Each structure stands twice: as C-alpha cells, then as structure tokens.
C-alpha cells in the first residue's frame, strides 16, 4: 500500500525533509503532462494583479516575520514518493523560484538548497532541463543585473528557443519580479523560510477518494483560474487577516461557509446566463456581478473612500484588506447577500413592479423589462455595450431601494413600501440628467430618506428638482385624499406622464379618465386640437417642441408634460381647456374642434399654419427653429421644421415652402419643381421652379418669384419677376394664407 502524508501544515522545505509529526519526506515534485503551463508569470494584466498580490503577501510575511498560511495543495504521491500536484502547481512553482532566489541571494550552502533539484516539470524537456540548470551549483546569478532574466538567457546552457516555452518565459518574468521585490530587502530571510513563515495545508488526493476521472476533469489543461476563484481566494484571505479582536475565527469561517453554501444556493436559479451553453451553467460570474454592485454601493456611501481601480481583485483588497473599515464593509456585504435568503425574489418584484399597467392593480409601478432587477444585476451589472451600461444607474438605485427595504422590514410595512417605491421609480423616470455616477451618493441618501419617511428630503440636489417638488406635494395631498390613491397611481402610470402629473395637477385628478381617452385618439389630432386652443410649445434651448403624431416619437409629449412647475402653467391651461370639453374623446370630436378653429380664424399666425397643413408636421420629434436672430421668440415667419431632435444641421425645411411644394406635387405630379432638404444652410431656402427657370421664397411680409441674370463676367444677379405683399395686421400677423397666395402665383406661371 502506498504511503501518504497526513493533512497538516507544511512548508515547501518540509515536503522534502518530512515533519516532526511523522510526515514522510518526498523524493520529488513533478508537474505532470496533464497540467497547464506555469501561469503566474504570464504577461497579462489580470495575472499581473495576481502576481503582485501573491508575491506581495509572501514578502510581507518574510520581512515582518508574520507567518502566512496558503490554501490547500492537493496531489497524488506515487510509488517513488514523488508528488504529482493536482491543485497548487502555480503556488509550488512560485515558492520554488522564491526559495532559489533567496538561497542564492543570501549565499545559502549547497547542502541546504539541494532539495530544489527535486522539483521538476514533466510538461516539456525544455522546462524540465531549465529547472535543473537553474539550481545547479555551476550557475551563480549576478544580482547586480537589473533583470536577472537577461543574465540567465545569456548563459551558454540556455538555448534561444527555450524562451519560446511558455513555462520558461513565465518563470523568467517571475524571477524578474521577485528580484524587484526582494533585491533590496533580502536580509536573513532564509531562516524565516526554514522556520515555517510560509506554509500551506497538504492533502494527498487518495485520502479524498478521488478517481482518475476526477483528476482529469479538475485538471483541464490550459484552463486558467476564473476571476471568481481568484476573488474568492483574495476575499477569504482578507477575512482571515482581520484582527481576531474584531472578528472571531468562527465568524470568518461562517462567512466562508455562506459563500460556498447559502449564497451559492441563492444565485443558483440564475446560473444559466441565457446563452444556452452548458459551460454557462455556473453562478461564479453572477456572484462577481452582484459583489461588484455591493462594493460600488460601499464606495458611493462613503465619500472618504476613493475607488482607484475597476479591477474586482483590487477592489476586494482595498475594501477588505487595506481598510480600517474592513469589518464594516464585510458586514454590509454579508447583509447584502443574506437579506435575499428565504425570499421569493421573483414574487417580490412582481408584487410591486410591472411592465404593463392594469386598471385592476394600479398601484404597481410600471417599469421597463425585466421586472426582476436582482436577476438583471446578476446577468449584466458592470457590463457595457460600447459606452452604454447594460445595467443603468437608475436600475442600481431601484435595486438598492429593494435591498434597503429587505433590511428594514421591521420598520417599513408592505403598504408603505408600495407607495415609497413608487415615489422612487417616478423620480428615476424623470431624472435623466441627474442619474450620474458622481451623483450616486445623493441619490442613495434620498432613496433611504424616502423609504424611511415616505417623503423627500429637501435641501440638496439628488433627483430632478421639479419631480422632487411634485412628489412632496403628492405625499402631503395623500394624507387627506387617501381614497384617491388608486386614481393618482393610474394617472402616474400613463406612458406619456411616467410619474409626472403636473400638467393635469392634483386639483384635476378626476380628469384622469379623460386624459386616457384623449390620448387613445390619433395623436396628430390631439396636437392640432391643442394648438387650436393655444400655444403649448416647449422651448428647448433654441428650439421649440410640440407633440408628435407618431407613437414612435412619444418622447416629445413626455418632454412637454414633464417641464418645470413654472413652465408647465400655460401647457396645463391649454390641456385642461381641451379636457373640459368632454368626458370622452374620439377622433371625430377632435376633428370638429380643429375644423371650428380653422373656420373661425381670421388671422393666420404660425399655429394656424401648423394646424392646417400636414406637411408642416413631419410627425417626428416636433422640433421647430425660428429666425436665429431671435431664437427664443416665435417672431415672424422664418420657421424651419427639423427632422432631427437636436441638430439644426440635420435635414430641415422651411415650413411654408415645404407645404407649397407638397401641395403642388400632389395636384401636378409632373411639375418641374424641387426643394432642398437643408434650408438652414441655404439648400432649401427657395423653391426651385425649374419648369419656368425661376425660384420662389418668402419674406415675413412678401412673396418673391425671381430668376438669375448672368453678366459678362459670369456673375449672376437676382432679378425679381414678382413681388407680392402678404396682407398683415399691424402686429405682423398674416391676414391671408401665404401658402394659398404662393400656390396661385405658381399656377399663374404655369398658364403663361
């Protein structure tokens, strides 16, 4: 029967000389063919972090003589008492190189370091021979060299092609790193190695009852350690490093057990990342994503902390190893996982959130899919699509709200949470510009206040100021109008309002059904009917916006209805005037409002033209640009209709030329005319009447038809063929329809 070494602490040296407790010495360590190449010396950013942490921990232990115990090393001992590592190859190789470096650097006698000749790689001849040559008494490195790798590769026993061996190149890189870390600190460190300053637990694989199949599966060659495995190891090491006076060993072990059992069970339903791949049937990446969320919350809530890296290993080290608040951070993470245990998570979110509003349960908050925000975080938190977060800031706030609620259920009732999460979702929907990472501390503070008090906290910028004011008004109003809570929720749920109801107001909450009825009609008719009553256009920088007739551009209505309390007043008056005309709206009813306005109008301002001519309403973003000399005032008739939402340099048309062009082509499809699509830059500032070799344009009070006359030098001058005044009031408002006047003028040219 094969002898084995009991599971106990060993140093690298102990493996070769045995232990006082009876552990027999090995005759060698051989990295088998089935193992992957040495990885801790690879030239990769993630590996650099691993190398920095691991070697840094070893240095700290040796320099300060503070013993450190590494994780288990598993392996099989063959009949020749040679250890074949199953797990621990990377650590053993690094320890081999560290022992060699310190022994040579401190001039340790050959008999003491002879055991290093028993460490070998069976992966390739070159790797095996390199280890042998490196520890040979014939080679004494020059530690004055900046890079020992250059000195090693200069040796006559080192063939050039050995540098192509990935294990050798990784060893050379690790040697250089050890040299950087220890060259000026290597003073009497060998005794520390001999006395057990660095140790690990060793367990022969046969004691685990492992089969050859398990051995092969666990050693998928070339498969690197996952991010989760590295984070788990770093986190567990950080927990153990917390002072026993603050955290007992039992508490630390309990957290590690939760990581392996309770929290794995929690994430197990989300193990499939929806890729359909069996390789994705794990929870590791879900744990990392949710851990990232929790650590980000720690940084947001503690403004004294500065996040210096997005690397999760660096974050774990920063929060749990190098911070005085490590126990506090650890407690937050523990509560952040534990609060979801024994909770039907899917049911929880479906209780308060929905993607489709229903009349039977209006108090559910309407949100974008998916409703299960926790699951979404497990799948996408921290991931990007270009510069777009797959898990937006608003979702982080929402997830934190549920997290806070679960941890304070003893003080927040289910009924209270239903209303308070609605306040938060309303604020999220109306805070496009406030939902920024640098504003997260304020957003989280406001979220906590709302969940605790059922109202907003005034005095600092968090969510959108206008919506904060509205939510406070609602909270006060509901104290005396609790019977109308469902009606308020239903109004908030309308897709054009998304929580912002100030365009109707609490004083007209009974118009909720009318509002739904109105916007169940053709939106183009709604737009025209509102314009028939008054000017409800919203000033957006130097543009004016009206509602779109297309459901694809409902954002125009949402922008108008969510403007500030001050700016909403005229819009509210116009909307209420229309809503007051009927309890139920139809397209025919709206058309009658429009027809009456057009029939009774005697002065033709810009509203008249937009109501009358479809061509002036592209049913896109509803954006219009007046004369750039007075961009914030709707003066005169130099009006451009924009095809885009923001850029005036995109397609745009003079609304009167566009209406004239479309009417002429409708009545005379073969007529030779053309209109450019960029009136702002001049291409489209005139209607080309190519059939008559002329062009037409409008001034504020005149209509011109002209042609170009060349001179002898090849220059052209404008010759006016027709200058027709447009009758106007003293205030400059048309008394005759300028499109009709121009239409008749063009027809007269056609008849010549």
In a nutshell, what does this entry contain?
This protein is of the alpha+beta class and 752 residues long.
What does this structure look like?
With 752 residues, the chain is α+β, with helices and mostly antiparallel strands. Helix content is 44%, strand content 11%. The protein is built from 30 helices and 20 strands. Strands 1-6-3-4-2-5 form a six-stranded mixed beta sheet. A five-stranded antiparallel beta sheet has the order 11-12-13-14-15. Strands 16-17-18-19-20 form a five-stranded antiparallel beta sheet, with helices on one face. A hairpin with a 2-residue loop joins strand 11 and strand 12 (543-545). The longest helix is centred in the first third of the chain and has 19 residues, at 45-63. It is elongated.
